[in-house]
Design goal:
- The complex is a heterodimer of chains A (210) and B (262).
- Chain A has nine helices and no strands.
- Chain A has 210 residues and is mostly helical.
- In chain A, α3 packs across α5 and α7 packs across α9.
- The longest helix of chain A has 23 residues.
- The radius of gyration of chain A is 18 Å and the shape is globular.
- Chain B is α+β, with helices and mostly antiparallel strands.
- Chain B has three domains: 50 residues, no CATH class; 33 residues; 107 residues, Immunoglobulin-like, CATH 2.60.40.
- In chain B, 21% of the residues are buried.
- The model of chain B has no long low-confidence stretch (mean pLDDT 86).
- Classes of the chains: A mainly alpha (210), B alpha+beta (262).
- At the A-B interface, α3, α4, α5, α6 and α7 of A face α1, α3 and α4 of B.
Chain lengths: 210, 262
Amino acid sequence: MPPHQLMPATISKVPQLVTIPAVMHDERVEREDRELILRMASRDANALDAFYTRYNRVAFSLIFRIVGNRQDAEDVLTDVFWQVWQQSGRYDSTRGKPIAWLLTIARTRAIDCIRSNQRQQTRTEELEPDRSPAIGTVEHDSFVLADTRRAVQEALQTLPEQQKIALEMAYFQGMSHSEIAAALGQPLGTVKDRIRNGMIHLRKQLKAYL
Amino acid sequence: MRHEQLTDDLQEQASLYAAGAMAESQRREYARHLEEDQCAVCLSEVNELQTAVSMLAFSTPSRSPSPTVRERLREQARSVNSVSSIRSRSPLRRFWVDLIAGAAAVGALVFALAVTRANTELRRLADSLNSRIAQLEIQLSQSRTSLISLTSPEVRIVDLRGQRGNDRARGRIFWDQSKRKWFFYVRDLPQLPADKSYQLWFVPASGNPISAVVFNTESDGSTERQIDVPEAVVILKAAAVTTEPAGGMPQPTGQFALLGAL
């Protein structure tokens, strides 16, 4: 099914988004992201605001998934976007897309947070219903993010369960391969293979989005 | 070292690094390889895999942060920009800003120097007071030990009286028999010339006296000493203080200054 047929009704009010294929739209977003980073490097606070508007939800969702409570997640989110603002002049486009850069920073800071305060056990809010607005109804670029989200979920469905578990333990819990091997009771080599094969599978499945 | 082509091992390394699954020491070493060696093969693989794995963020339930985060960021960015806007104003204005800032900096420097000097004085005073406190604590501890010993039921008290015209002189020994210690206190003994010393003796029931301590008094004729009683000293008939040549003698040679029977 083409991505634009999956869009929520509210998005269809933005005509230029309806007719553009997701991947092409994604390229345009990426170009705009690079421009925003350039503007941030010249200390344009509006660019920071726009970049935040685009990616605060996905970054926050990732951070929340790792740290497990809202207060810490919001503190880390602030640090992450502030780091983006401060390091925007050093962003190297050959190292990947801006969104990947942002999410790498977000993941790293979130893992640092749980390692420093060990508050992982207080994941009470995970059980609460999410009161935030539904995907694709708030930001003008949610179409791209929603399409990416769908693609990632499809890719994960085709990923063998054992590879998915090993990858998630590394990425979301910050566990090293030896810690994962010990936790799963599997040989180290097996865990390394699962991580490697899982990542190669993800890369192949999401090629159009990378 | 730069690699020429991607092998299975290199791909494994890149995937573990990108997933954040390396142990810290390995991670540092690999990061060094990427940064310092600028290995294009590994860099390219890491970048692609890192981008791929970062997409896992989209598999998490979607949540929104509270508006305060945006406000915080705006505030931080505003404060940075207000500083940089001051720096980018017109040359004349910048001259005055720089002048005021310079004067403020000089003022701050002078103030800092004054504070540093005052701090040094205070630190010296604090060191001196700390040293005095330490001395007093030692004295207090010794006094407590003495008091405990002097009030012990096992302590025997021996009074010594002045001899040969030293009628005012007095001495007292608190003999803690369980600890084999003498606490010896003297007052009103006449001061001796530099070539003389007082010497306290254990005087056993049989045999020769044994030297306990050689001492000189303070200007008021007083002194106090703690003396270990030797194992050889078992039954005593007296304690005596004689006047001896400076540094003391193996056996008494001078006149008695104080004497007390046990």
